[in-house]
Amino acid sequence: MTADTGPVSGTAGSLADLHTRRREVAAQIAEIGFTATGTVLYVLNECGKPACACHRDPARRHGPYWRHTCKINNKTVGRRLTEAQAAVYTELIENGRALRALLAQLQQLSDQARDLLLTAAIQDQVPVAEEGQEAVANPRENQTEKRGR
Ligand SMILES: [Zn+2]
């Protein structure tokens, strides 16, 4: 086994890796088309006429129809769609789902990068020793190996 005497590049490497992955996710986001929220349903309906048989017998309900429902201000809003509109809406909703998944990935990468950046910011202040304290040696300068520039 050989001891690892190479340069300390773990932190920088990780941050560079996070940058690369962030760009990859951002590129995927750029490829997503328009989006929508809600649900597309294929449902049987009861109509507004109280005397209609659809209210008594589930088998005599109207439809099935394509419907889109979504919540607006905590209220479920529905809208009837043609089959072609349902196909369009379904695609938009899938795009929306994909977008939210990628945004979650982006947030996760950002959280990791934030931790690395905050840690790096502390280490940059370390060489300045406060009064009564010994200067903390920079671990990067502890290496015996000399590297030419
Ligand atoms: Zn009816």
Summarize the structure in words:
With 149 residues, the chain is α+β, with helices and mostly antiparallel strands. The chain has a domain at 32-119. The protein is 44% helix and 17% strand. It contains two helices and three strands. It has helices at residues 10-31, 83-125, and strands at residues 39-45, 62-72, 75-81. It has a three-stranded antiparallel β-sheet, covered by helices on one side. Strand 2 and strand 3 form a beta hairpin. The structure holds zinc ion (ZN). Residues 46-47, 49, 52, 54, 62 line the site of zinc ion (ZN).
> Strand count, sense and closure of the main sheet?
3 strands, antiparallel
What Rg do the Cα atoms give? 29 Å
The side-by-side strand order for the widest beta sheet comes to 1-2-3
Distance between the termini: 28 Å
Measured as a percent range, the helix fraction is: 40-55%
Strand content: 15-25%
Bound molecules: zinc ion
The oligomeric status of these chains comes to single chain
Described by the principal axes of the CA atoms, the overall outline is: elongated
Strand tally is: 3
Give the helix/strand class: alpha+beta
pLDDT averaged over residues: 83
